[in-house]
Amino acid sequence: MTRNDLFDAIRPFAPDRRFLDSHVQVIDALADAFGLPHPGDGALVPALALIKEFEGCVLEAYPDPGTGNDPWTIGWGATGAGIAKGVRWTQAQADARLAEDVAKFMSAVVKAAPVATDKQRGAMTSLAYNIGIKAFQDSTLLKLHNSGNYAAAADQFRRWNKAGGRVLAGLTRRRAAEAKVYRS
């Protein structure tokens, strides 16, 4: 039995088939007591594969072409403080930032969707990495996932294919790949 199996077995007894944070803490403690592995480690492989495939790695900062130049981006899609025109990174810097960012986004996904397969979690981490944690937390995709409607949640990936109000072919391909991983 996996930790996910335990959550799935208990879910029918939760109010509206949804867990409160207090439920998750108790079930996690029970899983820990029985030595069930923690989720997340197996999700790293699909998350990194998707992010690397669709972000690519550029070692000189560039303006985001999908949103009309903002934000400036570098490495494997990193944005934020200190990333601006003229900034250059080494491959080691880009890889270190990717590891740091993926850990942050995966942690947010685990918290928002405590019950998920590794591939579901990897696909959702790739999505959150690209659209941001807040957008992911507010998404219909997450609501459907947490309600156990995984088929409808998978269909929601395709809705996130726009940047700057325009449908982008690269985002359409990325969302199809994320949905495929989520379903597998």
Low confidence ranges: none
The assigned CATH architecture of the largest domain is Orthogonal Bundle
Shape: globular
- Total domain modules: 2
Quickly name the level 1 CATH class of the largest domain: Mainly Alpha
Largest sheet: 2 strands, antiparallel
Helix/strand order, N-terminal first:
HHHEEHHHHHEEH
Number of helices: 9
Mean pLDDT: 86
Structural class: mainly alpha
Proportion of helical residues: 55-70%
- CATH topology descriptor of the largest domain: Lysozyme
Strand adjacency order, main sheet:
1-2
The fraction of residues assigned to DSSP E strands is: 5-15%
| Total count of strands | 4
Q: Cα-atom Rg, whole angstroms?
A: 17 Å
Straight-line distance between termini: 19 Å
Structural key phrases:
184 residues, 9 helices, 4 strands, two-stranded antiparallel ribbon, Lysozyme, two-stranded antiparallel sheet, mainly alpha, single chain, 2 domains
Describe the structure.
Helix 3 (44-55) packs parallel to helix 5, helix 4 crosses helix 5 and helix 5 (118-131) packs antiparallel against helix 9 (169-183). The chain has 184 residues and is mainly alpha-helical. The strands form two sheets. Strands 1-2 form a two-stranded antiparallel ribbon. The chain has two domains: 1-38, no CATH class; 39-183, Lysozyme (Orthogonal Bundle). A hairpin with a 2-residue loop joins strand 3 and strand 4. The radius of gyration is 17 Å and the shape is globular. The mean pLDDT is 86. It has helices at 3-10, 21-33, 44-55, 91-112, 118-131, 133-137, 140-146, 150-156, 169-183; strands spanning 58-63, 72-75, 162-163, 166-167. The protein contains nine helices and four strands.
